[in-house]
TrEMBL record:
Record's protein name: MATH domain-containing protein
CDD domains in the cross-refs: MATH
Transmembrane helix recorded as keyword: yes
Pfam families in alphabetical order: MATH_2
Membrane-spanning intervals of the chain: 329-348
MATH domain: residues covered: 11-140
Keywords: Membrane, Transmembrane, Transmembrane helix
Length: 350
């Protein structure tokens, strides 16, 4: 087993940003894998981060693992590793450390219940998902109390999201009965059928009729979809009526029950009906896969003895970078290049 007991410890960090994370489509047991990175001082082994957005086994948690990707090198490699979620400016929100992690070939280690989904997606969403981007960090180092940072890896994964918004007039609302549906088709720029929204009333014969919007998805490339519906009064004011989600593989049809009845609208017709028509606004956003993935490496080479004696507790706060390397500038350049490439890729598909 390789333990890498050098005179002075060495360390690596891998920061991974996932943009549009709210539109991740993976079900429980399905993972999203980071771009791979190679650790040269650890026998040139290849590693990835594995993230289970809806849990490895428990759907209420996010699973987070480090994986030794290939089968090269020693049978077992012993390292120290940390897995963290960060704020937008690099502060640690949640993290765990394994001081003696032994990785066999093609082996993953981590946390099946790293953090509750409720925390990330709802309770503290503005903190964990600033600009809808999740930032994950992995620190790998040899078994020393003090180490020097050899390399920093920056990876970015962008989930492709398309958005559309439209006003929807439900004509002759008072006469809408039975199974009659009012449909609205959403098409791509290439005039391809994507999905159909249907408005209809439901309920027993002598009970209040409830309003519904159903979604029928035609494009198999749509992996995840969020539909938001608003009721618009005659003055233009909007009332949110709820939202519905769609996952590829569960069903081709989903239905959103709106929080008003036909009786309520008719009784308040002076507010909601203009020339007998009801007006809705719909906002639809859907993901079709990954738009872009890339990794950037910053190699620090030999670091001065003053810097190498600093504890590698947090690569952002406690490790002074060499003054001849402007890492902030390089990171900004990398982010700009990634953004331009994603824009060019999007324009090429129009």
């Amino acid at each position: 087993m390789a333990a890498f007991h050098e005179e002075q410890g060495i360390g690596y960090s891998f920061e991974w940003k996932i943009e549009n994370f709210s539109y991740i489509w993976h079900k429980t047991g399905e993972k999203i894998v980071s771009p791979a990175f190679v650790i040269d001082r650890f026998e040139n082994t290849k590693w990835t981060l594995n993230l289970y957005p809806r849990g490895d086994k428990n759907e209420n948690y996010i699973g987070f693992y480090l994986k030794r990707k290939d089968v090269r090198g020693s049978k077992d490699i012993e390292i120290q590793c940390e897995l963290q979620f960060l704020t937008e400016d690099g502060m640690v929100l949640r993290g765990y450390r394994d001081r003696k992690a032994i990785f066999g070939k093609d082996m993953a280690r981590g946390y099946e219940e790293f953090i509750k989904r409720q925390t990330v997606f709802f309770d503290e969403k503005e903190t964990y998902l600033a600009n809808d981007t999740l930032t994950a960090l992995c620190i790998i180092k040899s078994n020393h109390k003090r180490v020097k940072l050899i390399k920093k890896f920056f990876a970015r994964t962008i989930i492709k999201v398309n958005r559309t918004s439209f006003y929807w007039n439900i004509g002759r609302f008072r006469n809408l009965e039975g199974d009659r549906k009012i449909s609205h088709d959403i098409r791509s720029l290439k005039n391809k059928d994507l999905l159909t929204c249907n408005f209809y009333m439901s309920g027993e014969q002598f009970s209040p009729k409830s309003a519904n919007v159903s979604i029928s998805v035609h494009d198999k490339k749509i992996k995840f979809l969020i539909l938001k519906v608003f009721l618009v009064d005659i003055s233009g004011e909007k009332v949110k009526c709820g939202q519905q989600f769609y996952f590829n593989g569960f069903s081709k049809h989903v239905t959103l029950l709106l929080p008003f009845t036909k009786k309520f609208i008719i009784e308040n017709r002076n507010k909601y009906l203009k020339d007998g028509d009801l007006r809705l606004q719909c906002e639809c956003a859907y993901s079709t896969g990954f738009a872009f993935e890339a990794t950037e490496t910053i190699d620090f080479g030999i670091i001065s003895s003053e810097n190498s004696n600093k504890a590698f507790e947090n690569v952002y706060n406690n490790l002074e970078q060499p003054n001849f390397f402007d890492t902030k500038f390089l990171n900004e350049v990398f982010i700009t290049i990634v953004f331009l490439i994603s824009i060019i890729g999007y324009l090429c598909q129009l």
